[in-house]
Specification:
It holds the Pfam family Pribosyltran. By secondary structure, the protein is α/β, with parallel strands linked by helices. Helices cover 30% and strands 28% of the residues. It has one domain: Rossmann fold. It contains 4 helices and 8 strands, in the order βαβαββαβββαβ. The strands form 2 sheets. The protein has a 5-stranded parallel beta sheet with strand order 3-2-4-5-6, with helices on both faces. The longest helix has 18 residues, at 9-26. The chain is globular.
């Protein structure tokens, strides 16, 4: 299987920095903004964005991790609703994931967010948008668009799990 690096560590950091600035600009600051990272790599990316924004804006932004398994429509097994508090009512939620593909994970995450409270707005930030949507979902903030075929696999690696940062495509 041939693997090609699409983004290295520096490229990833630049994309994340740009996304952080776009979020601040779009929301005119970060008042009433809450980050929700989709487990597992989306959670890590959300934490990184929150750290960047804290450094830029000199204020802490709430950041939560979300397991969307209960709300998935493509899993046979029933998963329990996660036992956690996520105060999203009336907040601007920035949902963060590593790769946006068919849109089903994001749909499940939006259902989950609404379970925890009615957010005033949900925005989507992804490191990679690879296309092939099955649902009418689009990202508000994108690190890199990577047109791909259905046979290709895109992997985001993060130091916290994979001991390196990067985005790779395999055929």
């Amino acid at each position: 299987m041939e693997t090609k690096e699409i983004l290295d560590e520096i490229g990833m950091r630049r994309s994340m920095t740009r996304i952080a600035h776009e979020i601040i600009e779009h929301n005119k600051g970060v008042n009433d903004v809450v980050f929700v990272g989709i487990k597992t790599r989306g959670e890590i990316l959300a934490n990184r964005l929150c750290d960047m924004i804290e450094h830029i804006e000199d204020c802490k932004v709430p950041c939560y991790a979300l397991d969307v398994s209960h709300w998935r429509d493509d899993l046979e097994e029933a998963y329990p609703i996660p036992d956690l508090e996520m105060p999203v009512k009336g907040k601007k939620v920035v949902l963060v994931d590593d790769v946006l593909f068919k849109g089903r994970t994001v749909r499940a995450a939006m259902d989950a967010i609404m379970h925890f409270g009615r957010a005033s707005e949900i925005q989507l930030a992804v490191l990679v948008d690879r296309g092939h949507r099955e649902l009418p979902i689009r990202a508000d903030y994108i690190g890199k668009n990577i047109p791909s075929s259905l046979q290709e696999v895109i992997r985001v690696k993060v130091k916290e799990i994979d001991q390196q940062d990067g985005v790779y495509i395999s055929k």
